Amino acid sequence: MRIISGLFKGRRITAPKKLPVRPTTDMAKEALFNILNNQYYFDDISVLDLFAGTGNISYEFASRGTEQITAVDADYGCIKFINETADAFDMSISTIKSDVFKFLVKTKQKHTIIFADPPYDFELEAFFKIPDLVFKNELIEDDGLLIVEHSKHTDLRDLKYYSHSKSYGGNMFSFFTK
């Protein structure tokens, strides 16, 4: 994986093969950040990266100037890799090793953008829980956005707060707003 833009543009990051991850493709990530670039000043926002995996999305936000980034993942190896990479690049990414659903119930901190990239083979009900918990617990700022990455075979259009989706190859991003 590589960082698409910003201070660390072009830097390649190689995650250990043993991590249980499926990083967002560079093509999909570039398209997503082109959308976000037209809506937000990255140095003025707070980001929550759920199911952070390799930290791919967190690094992209950090490279573009975001300083308030929290990455949450249940896997110790993923958290360790994100911490090591963030330290090597001097990025301000806070990590939390936790089950995402338990974290969403406990946290009170609001964010401008919440990005969730759960395993594509999740049960549909698990995908439904993400926006439900985010909006029920008021974790999004008024001008904020929840983005859920999923397979094109998963349909989230009927969920409350759903705004729209964008498809890039086999990847799909569903956007949710207040």
From TrEMBL:
<dbReference type="InterPro" id="IPR029063">
    <property type="entry name" value="SAM-dependent_MTases_sf"/>
</dbReference>
<dbReference type="Pfam" id="PF03602">
    <property type="entry name" value="Cons_hypoth95"/>
</dbReference>
<dbReference type="GO" id="GO:0032259">
    <property type="term" value="P:methylation"/>
</dbReference>
<keyword id="KW-0808">Transferase</keyword>
<keyword id="KW-0489">Methyltransferase</keyword>
<dbReference type="InterPro" id="IPR002052">
    <property type="entry name" value="DNA_methylase_N6_adenine_CS"/>
</dbReference>
<protein>
    <submittedName>
        <fullName>RsmD family RNA methyltransferase</fullName>
    </submittedName>
</protein>
<dbReference type="GO" id="GO:0008168">
    <property type="term" value="F:methyltransferase activity"/>
</dbReference>
<dbReference type="InterPro" id="IPR004398">
    <property type="entry name" value="RNA_MeTrfase_RsmD"/>
</dbReference>
